[in-house]
Write a structure and sequence with these properties.
Blueprint (H helix, E strand, L loop, with lengths): L2 E3 L9 H7 L8 E3 L7 H5 L6 H13 L5 H12 L10 E5 L2 E5 L9 H19 L3 E6 L3 H10 L5 E8 L5 H8 L6 E7 L2 H13 L1 H7 L1 E3 L5 H17 L7 E6 L4 H11 L4 E8 L4 H8 L1 E2 L20 H8 L4 H14 L2 E2 L2 H10 E5 L2 H15 L5 H10 L10 E5 L7 H8 L7 H7 L6 E4 L2 H11 L10
Parallel strand pairs: 4-14, 5-6, 5-8, 6-7, 7-15, 9-10, 9-14, 10-13
Antiparallel strand pairs: 1-2, 3-4, 11-12
Length: 471
Amino acid sequence: MKFISTRGSAPALSFEGALLAALAGDGGLFMPEVWPQLKPDEIAALAGLDYADAAYRVMRPYLEGDPCLADLEDVLSEAYEGFHHPAVAPLSQIGPNSFVLELFHGPTLAFKDLAMQVVSRFMNRALRRRGQRATVVGATSGDTGAAAIEAFRGLDAIDVFILHPEGRVSDVQRRQMTTATEPNIHNIAVQGTFDDCQAIVKALFGDQELNARLGLTGINSINFARILAQIGYYFTSAVTLGAPYRPVAFTVPTGNFGDIFAGYAARAMGLPVQRLVIATNLNDSLPRAFASGTYEPHGVIATASPSMDIQLASNFERLLFELAGRDASRVRSLMEDLRRQGSFQLSQGEFGQLREIFSAHSAGEDVTEMTIRGVFEETGMVVDPHTAVGIAASQQEAALGTTPMVVLSTAHPAKFPDAVKRAIGIAPAQPERLTLKLGSEERCTVLPADFGTVADFIVARAASPLTGAEA
C-alpha cells in the first residue's frame, strides 16, 4: 500500500514514510492510493473480538508490505491495555435506536487516546529502527495535546512541542498538558486562536530547511495514521448493532474533520454507513458549506465545547480529494482559492455527492446546555458539552427509519466541570487519575502568534533529529 498526496506533486510513500512525514512535501495530506475492502463475512467476524484484535483486522490491509506491519499486533495490545473499560469503546443506549459510543476511557479521558496511543508507539519503533530522532509538533484545541503528551512522554527518540490557544482550552485540558515533567515535553500557549496555532504548525512543515533540520513530524489528524487508528471503532460499534446486515448512522462532534473522516473511510472500506452527521458548535463553517456549497471560514468563537472551536477544518481537504474524483489539480485549485480569497465554491457534482452521504448541524450554547440537562433528566447519564452538541445534531435527523444512530462521545464530562454544573446543578464525578493530575505543578511558555518566535523557541530546545552518522 502506498500513500499519495491530495495535491498530487509529492512522491508516494509507504505507511511508515507517511507516518513520519505527516504532511506531504507539496502541502497536501496523505491518502491511501486505494481503499482496501472488507467483505461482509469479514465484517461480521469482528463481532465478539477484543477491541485490539478487531482493530488489527481493520488496520492490517493498510500496512501490507510495510515494516510497521510487524509492530501492529504488539502496538495495539500495548496501546489499549491501559484503558479503563474492558470494551475500550463501549456503547450505551440513550433512547429508541439512539446510542452513545463512549470514547473517553483512555488515560486522558478523550477520544484522541484511541489513536494517539497507537501512533506514538508506531513512531518510536520506526525511529529506533531507522536510528533517528524526530521532533513532534502539534496544535491542539484541547484534547489532542493532552493525548499526545500522555502518549509520547518519556520516549527516547522524540521531542514534543504542543501549541494551544492561551485561555481557550478548559482548565482541566490545560493542566493535563502542562503538568508533564518529562524533559522531552514542551508546552506553548499561543496568544491567539486554534486556527493561529494550526497555521504556525503548517508553516513549520512548509519550511523545508527547518523541517529537515528538526526532523519534524506531526500528530494532528493531518497524519493519516491518526485517521487509520480511529476507523476501528466505527466497525466495532456498527457490528454490535447488526452490521453488515443492518446499516448504521453516526453523528460526530466535529472540529478538524478527522474523526468523521475516519467514518467516511470505514464506509469506503465496505461498512454499511447510511449517514454521517457533522455536529458543530457556533463555529459553523461546515454546516454553512453543506447548506450553500461555499466553504468560507469565519473568525473563531469561544464556546463551552472548546475542542470544536475551529473554523478551518484541515481534514476537509481529504474529503475534497474524494469528491473531486481524486483529481489533485482540482484540490490545488480549491485550496488556492481558500488561501487567496478566504473561501471556495464546490461544483454542483461535488456538492451533490457531499449531501448524499453527509448532513451537518450546529448547536448554540443554550441548546448545548439544554441537551446536557435533558439527557441527564431522561437517562441519568452525564455528558460533556461536545457530546451534547452531537446529541443535539443527531436529533435533527428524522429520516433514518429503523437505522440506529450512534453519537460519538468524545470526552469525559469531568474535563468540563463548569459547563456540566451550569446545566445540571452538580459537578461531574472526577476520576482519581484526573484528580492526581490536576494537583501537579504546571510548565508552559506563552508566545505570540508569530511563526518566527515559535520556530526559534523550538529550534533552541529540540535535540538533533539524527543520531550517529547521517541516517
